[in-house]
Amino acid sequence: MQRRDFMLSLAVGTASLMAGCSAQRASAPPASSPAASPSAPVASAAASPSAPPSPSPSLSPLHLQDGPPSLPAPTAPDSVILGLPEGVGNVLALTVDDGADPAVVDAYADFAKDSGVRLTFFINSMYPSWTDSRDKLLPLVESGQVQMANHTHSHAALTSLSPAGIVEELSQCESFLNSTYGVTGAPFVRPPYGYRDESTDAACAQIGYSTSVMWYGSLGDSGLLPPEVLLGEADKWLEAQRIVLGHANAPTVTQLYGQIIDILRERSLLTATLDDVYFGPGHTRSI
């Protein structure tokens, strides 16, 4: 299906910025909308870096880029970030939450390898998918193409926990990242459902998680979506200097990697991890 054929059929009710909760979490409080509207303060695109390389017979049809894009000198992230800083050009950060479906995590690993797309995963360490796909993901983590960050152990809403409970949730996920991938997730934490305040930020910072990562645009795929709806959200939100939220919970996205790459190519967009942007291209957080 061509994107122009279904753009008018996009579901108006699809939350543009769904918080990082899966559809099965119906008992959780409704998702808030950090950076929810297109009027949120995200810097306008600067001059584009070199255009993405064109695919050739020697490359995967998904091939987008080799290595990190050209980026300005890194600056320390703020305590809360909604989008990328000024000056990064035609670059966005694709972030993927949760990991409820092992097959989707595995497919994302293949997608990253085949395309060169750079991803930041905000994982819930309770999901076995992150252990199941370790052998595929570890080389990508070690090279800096894939970044691992903390989304808590069990996807608990931080605003419902005591400071000690917050520390426990983050610490369990941090221990998993240390032992399974040899990295720390700090300083980046994504609060489940987008629920955070000054008190939760302070508790996170106690153990080195000093930056809460929100988002400016979502694929809306915390649960199962029709392909045309998900692709419509991708078309809406994949723009320069955005932090875009996706999920590794349902299989629809795995059918659409080619169309997502097409959008990125058409807009001359390249991808970067948060570490690329804030700590230098290819940076890894080895322990």
From TrEMBL:
Domain NodB homology: 90-287
Keywords for the protein's UniProt record, in alphabetical order: Hydrolase, Metal-binding, Signal
Short name of any one Pfam family annotated for the protein: Polysacc_deac_1
Record bears the keyword Nucleus: no
GO annotations of cellular component type: membrane
Gene Ontology MF: a single term: hydrolase activity, acting on carbon-nitrogen (but not peptide) bonds
PROSITE patterns referenced in this protein's UniProt entry, alphabetically: NODB (PS51677), PROKAR_LIPOPROTEIN (PS51257)
Superkingdom of origin: Bacteria
GO biological process, one term: carbohydrate metabolic process
Residues covered by region (Disordered): 22-78
Keyword Chloroplast attributed: no
Biased composition annotated in UniProt, kind: Low complexity: 26-49
PANTHER family membership: CHITIN DEACETYLASE 1-RELATED, GLYCOSYL TRANSFERASE-RELATED
Name by which UniProt lists this protein: Delta-lactam-biosynthetic de-N-acetylase
Organism: Actinomyces slackii
Lineage, opening ranks: Bacteria, Bacillati, Actinomycetota, Actinomycetes, Actinomycetales
